[in-house]
Design a protein that fits this description.
The chain is built from nine helices and two strands; from the N terminus they run E-H-H-E-H-H-H-H-H-H-H. With about 220 residues, it is mostly helical. It has one domain (about 1-215): Orthogonal Bundle (TorD-like). The relative contact order is 0.16.
């Protein structure tokens, strides 16, 4: 599947990215990740990071053998024991190293404002990276399914959430992964998320400028 910003495929990509940073990683998920491609609009950086995570799975023996190791690595990086080495929570980076801080409340407010709430069976703080990526996917899907002013509102919410709540801490999370000597799979996942987010913000910003010019 080749993914491109202006299509519903973007919602599918964010859904995959959301699962790649949640527990557990499964063989089926890794097979989906192995089939991903990116379009030229996402730039060479996204393609390189995608290859890095795909090659890492191959080096671990493929989709059937890799999950056991990757789930141990996810536990080490994201859960502990003790202080996680690379906490996947916005509050940790934006609310002074705390969990469930003001940023978590702000993110929950953004979900409510858009009419979305995470699945109550998923016991994660609202500012967990997996939920934030899932929310971007939901907004991308709404934009794809809408037209006119409704589509513009959905794209505006997509841009605002990505720019205000995810982009500000993603680089710090990547730096923690590097300090923790994370496996290339998770370095590739983080790099891929960063490249996709940058491409989407640029694309959405261009649409915003076109809308303002047309008014």
């Amino acid at each position: 599947m080749t993914l491109s910003s202006p299509t519903r495929d973007r919602a599918l990509l964010y859904a995959v990215l959301s699962r790649l940073v949640s527990y557990p990683v499964t063989s089926d998920l890794l097979r989906v990740a192995a089939e991903l491609n990116v379009s030229k609009s996402d730039g060479g950086g996204a393609a390189g990071e995608l290859r890095r995570l795909q090659d890492a799975v191959t080096a671990l023996g493929g989709a059937d053998d890799a999950p056991e190791f990757l789930n141990r690595e996810a536990t080490r990086l994201f859960e502990g024991p003790g202080q996680p080495l690379a906490p996947p929570f916005g509050s940790f980076y934006l609310s002074g190293g705390t969990l469930m801080g003001p940023e978590a409340a702000a993110v929950r407010g953004a979900y409510l404002d858009a009419g979305f709430l995470p699945d109550p069976s998923v016991h994660l703080p609202p500012d967990h990276l997996s939920l934030e990526l899932g929310f971007l996917g939901a907004l991308a899907g709404r934009a794809a399914d809408s037209s006119g002013a409704d589509a513009e509102l959905a794209r505006g919410a997509w841009w605002d959430f990505a720019a205000s709540h995810l982009a500000p801490w993603l680089a710090s999370w990547q730096a923690d992964l590097r300090r923790a000597e994370a496996h290339p799979f998770y370095l590739g996942v983080a790099g891929f998320i960063s490249e996709i987010l940058e491409a989407d913000l640029a694309w959405l910003d261009e649409l915003r400028e076109q809308s303002i010019t047309a008014q």
